[in-house]
Design goal:
Elements: H1 2-21, H2 26-31, E1 35-37, E2 42-46, E3 52-54, E4 61-62, E5 75-78, E6 84-85, E7 98-101, E8 107-108, E9 121-123, E10 130-131, E11 144-146, E12 153-154, E13 166-168, H3 174-187, E14 217-225, E15 235-243, E16 249-253, E17 316-317, E18 321-322, E19 335-337, E20 344-345, E21 357-359, E22 366-367, E23 380-382, E24 389-390, H4 399-406, E25 426-429, E26 432-436, E27 442-444, E28 451-452, E29 465-467, E30 474-475, E31 488-490, E32 496-498, E33 517-521, E34 536-537, H5 548-551, E35 561-566, E36 571-574, E37 580-588, H6 592-600, E38 614-621, E39 636-641, E40 649-656, E41 662-665, E42 667-672, E43 675-682, E44 687-696, E45 701-703, H7 717-732, H8 734-752
Parallel strand pairs: 2-4, 3-5, 4-6, 5-7, 7-9, 8-10, 10-12, 11-13, 18-20, 19-21, 20-22, 21-23, 22-24, 26-28, 27-29, 28-30, 29-31, 30-32, 32-33, 33-34, 35-37, 42-45
Antiparallel strand pairs: 1-2, 14-15, 15-16, 17-18, 25-26, 36-39, 37-38, 38-44, 39-43, 40-41, 40-44, 42-43
């Protein structure tokens, strides 16, 4: 009898533990107020904070935006009862990692899981027959998806930006055929999401968004705008300013074409001259929005405004730099000519636009990463003789390059001077070699070529010998990378630079380099570590977090994480850290970069007051020692002790983008047992400043139960563990916890009770 009592007690305790581990059932979930379900069975919204969500079995349809921008959920189970999921239902759920879809669904609608950057796996039922427009767009971590033979309609854009994706499908099926084309497109992804990998392109919300303001939406702004023919004040446009989860903002014209990514771009403080003046504004301006910053009609076109933070930016910075992503996805461009004074075209500045021809003025020295990537209609480019650098993917997926590569040699487009040749196997403009279409073993670069664009000959297995002209001064990144049969190079007599990985994967040794060389990029030769006395340089591509192999960073998973040096009490956490990183935080007296940015943005800050900035330099490195400037989708969470003089005030973090333009980053004041800390998340590294706003900080202070995911021993580490325990208890459900506790007490009592002797 005693043995049976003990066995029963053990069974009760085990049952209690099992009950506590069970996720909420559909019935339980339906009874929890976080699910808002209409009488017809439509899940209108989810207002909870669980990480693992099981949708109630009473739900038949999931409404548009039901889970939009939800940063809590990690997994979602969709029951068989769900027959339809509407557009944008899970848009921008950055931390959603896995999705299980029931058999009731037969179509994945447009944009349903777009911008779910954490999504790794999705289980599609066999009865899925259609996958819509941008259904999984920019799900940059999506690794695999199974699609059955019953699926016969997949939009070409369904998996755009899914650079890791492998599609499994029955051979010969529609999905299998789709996969073959997808892999071709995938191979051409510039992995722009980082932008080496993911700096997920900032695109405004699409206008067919029926949800209106989200919980992070700001106020609307009404901005005077001229019409397309230059009549001042012809109408005004209302822009909805919306904050994204990462703290950046977009401004979208209310009522614009739903499938245009926005007429709103970065404010132009300098002339952005479009040669087709019947269609485009001619803007002439200086550093601020003032009387001098008007277009020829006397109005500042609102169609040039976008917010990458709450502070507007300029399309052309200081009359010289076309800003990164300035016109990304614009549908308005056709024949374009940039004004004199421009020296640099920024990263993805014109990517995915409909521009047909481009004229760059003399003085332009560099075209940055992906500047004209996927400009499918771009057929003619006029480059100046001042070009010194063309970075990777600058002209990839343009008709200009693709048509050249697809055509036969011997074509002459009346460009017979040595600086502008398109006959034979070389596409040359302004002395820059853009593309090569030959198949010969012995290659001689034409005289007059000054620079070779990045990746120009990459992976060409035919080349065995190479002769470079005396006119050549620069060999771009990965220009001959992967040319495994290349054994001999005649470098010519002129002094030159050889950029990162230029001859990686070839048989060319560093000992074969020319004597007259002023820069050698990291990894330019496979045996570069054997050389001495060279000026070793590195390009921005190597400074992207995801490109650890390009930096030569040693992988050490056992010590993965971030250690902080410099500022006492500070700590940091890096999403997905796969090796040791060091973040150096140094308090500095001031920052010239930030001061210039503040001056440049002064016209936008007339209604905002910032106190004296307290400046810091943040430098993130790994074992390579190369500073990492771009983090992509892996946010770096930083906690800095709140300066004494700012206590009691609301604060804002100011920083600069790659072009030196001012940004503000959302920040929180964390009240923890170790003191008060300023916590913020950044996706790039540059000078930072903490500023007081003069307002009370009451609404900005959060308690330590939601504190920083700090490194072990850092501020808030214990509180984070406490928060995790609290979240676990909440996620299990109070009723199940009570039942489990009662079962455990009963089990212990049964085991411990002793039968009285008669």
């Amino acid at each position: 009898m005693k043995r049976k009592r003990k066995l029963l007690g053990v069974i009760l305790i085990i049952s209690a533990l099992l009950v506590m581990q069970l996720p909420p059932s559909g019935v339980d979930a339906a009874s929890i107020p976080e699910f808002s379900v209409s009488g017809s069975g439509t899940l209108l919204s989810y207002n909870g904070n669980k990480t693992d969500v099981v949708i109630p079995s009473t739900v038949i349809e999931i409404a548009t935006d039901a889970f939009r921008d939800n940063d809590h959920i990690r997994s979602v189970t969709i029951p068989n009862s769900v027959k339809k999921i509407n557009e944008y239902a899970f848009w921008d759920c950055d931390n959603l990692q896995s999705v299980s879809i029931g058999t009731g669904l037969n179509k994945i609608d447009d944009f349903v899981f777009a911008n779910c950057m954490g999504l790794v796996s999705v289980s599609l039922p066999s009865n899925i027959t259609s996958i819509g427009i941008y259904a999984f767009e920019d799900d940059v971590n999506l690794e695999a998806v199974n699609i059955t033979q019953y699926c016969h309609d997949i939009h070409p854009s369904s998996f755009d930006g899914c650079y890791k994706l492998v599609i499994f499908a029955p051979e010969g099926s529609y999905a299998w055929e789709y996969a073959q084309g997808f892999y071709v497109r995938q191979a051409q992804f510039p992995v722009y999401e980082d932008i080496g990998f993911i700096d997920v392109p900032d695109v405004p919300d699409r206008d067919d968004d029926p949800s209106g303001d989200t919980e992070n939406s700001g106020d609307t702004e009404v901005i005077d705008e001229t019409d397309g023919y230059g009549e001042p004040g012809a109408y005004t446009t209302e822009y909805e300013v919306t904050q994204r989860p990462d703290g950046t903002y977009t401004a979208v014209a209310v009522g614009q074409n739903p499938y245009i990514y926005g007429e709103s771009h970065v404010v132009g403080n300098s002339a952005v001259v479009f040669m087709d003046n019947s269609a485009f504004h001619v803007i002439d301006g200086n550093d601020t929005v003032s009387d001098e910053a008007e277009d020829i009609t006397g109005q500042i076109p609102a169609s040039t405004i976008v917010y990458s933070s709450s502070i507007p930016k300029y399309t052309i910075v200081d009359d010289s730099i076309v800003a990164d992503k300035a016109y990304y996805l614009s549908s308005d461009l056709e024949n374009m000519s940039l004004p004199s004074g421009v020296t640099e075209v920024g990263q993805f500045a014109f990517s995915r636009t409909e521009v047909v021809s481009v004229t760059l003025p003399e003085g332009v020295e560099r075209i940055d990463y992906g500047a004209f990537y996927h400009c499918d209609k771009l057929r003619e480019v006029d480059l100046p003789t001042t070009i010194m650098k063309i970075e990777p993917y600058a002209f990839t997926e343009t008709a200009w390059v693709d048509d050249f590569l697809a055509s036969q040699g011997g074509i002459n487009n009346n460009l017979d001077d040595e600086l502008n040749a398109s006959d034979g196997d070389f596409l040359v403009r302004g002395g820059a070699l853009i593309a090569y279409r030959g198949s010969g073993a012995n290659v001689t670069i034409p005289s007059g070529v000054r620079i070779i664009a990045a990746c120009c000959f990459k992976d060409n297995q035919n080349i065995r010998t190479l002769a470079l002209p005396d006119s050549l001064i620069s060999i771009g990144e990965e220009a001959f990378s992967g040319c495994s049969n290349l054994t001999e190079v005649s470098f010519g007599g002129r002094e030159k630079e050889i950029l990162d990985r230029a001859f990686a994967g070839t048989q060319i040794s560093v000992k074969d380099k020319p004597d007259r060389i002023f820069n050698v990029g990291i990894g330019a030769f496979d045996d570069l570590d054997k050389a001495s006395g060279l000026n070793i340089t590195y390009e921005e591509t190597s400074q992207r977090l995801s490109n650890a192999s390009m930096r030569g960073s040693a992988e050490d998973k056992t010590n993965a994480g971030v250690s902080v040096t410099g500022l006492e009490g500070a700590s940091a956490y890096l999403d997905g850290a796969d090796r040791p990183y060091t973040l150096s935080i140094t308090a500095v007296a001031g920052s010239d970069v930030l001061n210039r940015a503040l001056q440049r943005a002064a016209g936008f800050l007339v209604d905002r007051q910032f106190g004296e900035p307290i400046c810091y330099d943040l430098v993130l490195t790994d074992s390579s020692g190369i500073p990492i400037s771009k983090l992509g989708y892996q946010g770096l969470e930083v906690a800095i002790p709140l300066p004494e003089q700012l206590k009691g005030q609301s604060i804002v973090i100011l920083t600069c983008d790659r072009n030196g333009q001012l940004e503000d980053i959302p920040a929180e004041i964390v009240d923890s047992p170790s003191g008060q800390f300023v916590r913020f998340v950044t996706y790039h590294l540059s000078p930072f400043a903490i500023c007081g706003t003069g307002e009370a900080s009451d609404d900005q202070i959060i308690s330590s139960d939601v504190v920083l995911r700090a490194a072990s021993g850092g501020p808030g580490a214990g509180a984070y563990a406490e928060s995790s325990i609290k979240t676990w208890f909440v996620s299990r459900g109070i009723i199940r916890i009570v039942i489990s506790v009662l079962l455990i007490i009963t089990g212990i009592f049964i085991i411990a009770i002793k039968k009285k002797k008669v």
